[in-house]
Amino acid sequence: MSEPILRVTDLDVTFGSGRKNAKQVIDKVSFELRAGETLSLVGESGSGKTTIGRAILGLAPVTGGTIAFRGETISNIKRSERRKIAREIQVVFQDPYSSLNPSMTVEDILVEPLKSVGIRDGRKRVRDLLDAVGLPGDAGRRFPKEFSGGQRQRIAIARALALEPSVIICDEPTSALDVTTQARVLTLLRELQERTGVAYLFISHDLGVVTAISDRIAVLYRGRIVELGDAAQVSFHPRDDYTRRLQMSAPVADPVQQRARREERLRLLAAHTSAAG
Amino acid sequence: MSSRPTTESVLARSRQPRRRRPLIIRLLVNPLGAITIAFLLVVVVLAVFAPLIAPIPPNATQLSDVNALPFSPGHLLGADQSGRDVWSRLVWGTQPTIVGALIVLSVSVIVGVTGGLVAGFFRGTTEATGNFLSDVIMSLPGIVLLIALYTLTGPNIPVAMAVFGILVAPTYFRLVRAVVVGVRSELYVDAARVVGLSNVRIIGRHVLWAVRGPVIIQSAFIIAAGIGIQAGVDFLGLGDPRQPSWGSVMQDSFNNIYNNPVGVWWPALLISLTILSLVLLGNVLRDELQSIGVKPLSKAQQRKLAARAGKSFGRPAPQHSSAIAVRDLRIGYPQRDGEILEVVHGVDLEVKPGEIHGLVGESGSGKSQIAFSTLGILPREAVILEGSIWLDGQDLLADRKKGAKARGRKIGYVPQEPMSNLDPSFTIGAQLTYGLRAVQSISKKDARAKLLALLGRVGIRDPEQVFRMYPHEISGGMAQRVLICGAIASDPDIIVADEPTTALDVTVQAEVLELLRELSRERGLAMILVTHNLGVVADLCDVVSVMRNGLIVEEADVESLFAEPKEAYTRELLDSSRSVEIIEEAS
Q: How high is the ipTM of this complex?
């Protein structure tokens, strides 16, 4: 793996202000994303994983620490400066229903990012983009509501790819999808990475999904990283207590194995509570 | 988010990529739309071509025709006390009336919509200032202000209408601000920001588009109000006496009502019909712009459809002693073209007492439709075409009233979205007690004692405290426990759980699954567990039915289904599911 393209150092995010209302959701989080790799952030809701993604995108306030892209600080910069790096960092959101404007055709949705950087012949590229994400060429003339959740997510991926970014932040891109669709979207993401060398910051609550796609995994708990390591190590040989519970909580589609895991989970939980008490 | 697709997804499956017809065509196809548009078109034609249409100049007096009756020669609607032709005056008066209304509209749209866009998009102090100004304007008494204005400007209707436009601008402001605040938090606006679009472009492309529907609808009402107020101001005599308008014709005829009682009819009729048309057109617009398309059928229509589909109720009860049995269930949704889209095609499902039965499938497979029909909470548009649901020797579908009664006691429901299934304005305790006392005759005190014990049982640490809390004060996992408590409170025989853990974190999911398992074992509860997650099925279920396209394609006990799936589709589901699982390396 090569040098980091995105470096997050001691990131703090606090929502609200004043002593009473302020709520710190991210607490001294540091990690780096290398070119072409997939780093996953896993955690429960409220762990702050989505907030980290939004902070990198400039959609959440950074109250401490820095975020640097290729060595240049991009946290707390002006809108005009941020627009320059918009080409480089893109996003795929969780909800394929609200992330596409229902009143725009797919073509308009895909041309929008190209227009914003001054590419005029955007419409020609639409077909390539649709092709890349496995949608039929005539999809451009239709509206988002004519597509299923999985197809909509493909449209969102195509939009993220339009500017040929070097980083895509995938915020739970498959958690609203059916299992078969989820598997297909994950395969697509992997193929695109092989072809374009894009790096993913993959955000999910599901350790299973993350294991399938990541090079490295960071586990978040209450705004802090509790474990960061190689995907296989974190998923199969977790060192942290919380990661172990997370690992055992995810049910597997095999009744016999699942029974064993369930017992293991309850044993871990009992050990945890007795240690805590 | 994940609850939205339930019904939409079943319908989407066979939905053709059919383009909706343009708005104007839809309006014209609607009878009310066609009539009101035609009438308003006539009014516009009167305004534009007044000199050609009106037979006589508006101020030409003919003393011989003073107070002429309607339909007298030369005077279609009669003449007024000065011998002026009423029809001609009304025709000539149309233009200033319409122009006045348009001034009201443009001023209020420009001020209100712009203000609303800015306030809603930038929030903060801009919004606070805007809200304050709009509140101040709304508190001003309109007519009084216009009369006061008369003392300054004299009879100047355009200025009066412009001022009135500012007075009604807050309606647009509030409407637009609310829509924009909603749109602003949509993910597609975030996506536009990430892509690097400027604020102006985001507002122009995404936000303006979202507010256009509500603004168009509101405009019909504002024009109506404009016409009303313009006539009112003229009627009070604040208009230019040399220029006829609907209001001044009305004033003249009203002053002359003892000599010519019919005269007041014509301007009144014209004003009322125009305002009525605008209001009705506004309603039609609202229906067309904001409806989902298909109206629910009436009971009679449903019966007719069912009869046509050959619905057969009252089949003999199943022999076995099942907790619940679904037989030959077919569910359809009427479409716009009158056809019925069938989404469940004859499903049999039987759950034995104490058995946890998993109903697995992808979105659009119809699994939730089956769960909803056992609970009697299918969407209103849905029609049960055929089949029976047997619970405790009774067919729930044959007698709706009895069915509803049996449901409350015998079936408990655990929904997918715990938060949206609790009423935010009541305490947890109040809603649980209300729910329990609706199906059991039990005193408030006993209900409370029972519920507190149950809350403890479902794993809530401090039941007394939670009892007094409001839904927003508890976490999603806790809310789901509260709902499970509510579901088992009436001691049902069967629980229908619709994706009960989908909205929860994995760690909480594991706990809730554990709880459901324990409860089922303790109380001999049967369960129908609707889910798309095969891991959840493997964890909890005894028997599994796999659904696809409205049919059960495979049913087996959990171990053999996972070990030797017979259907290709089941294998595909399993493969997909296992591809994203933590399956430990052989160590």
A: 0.85
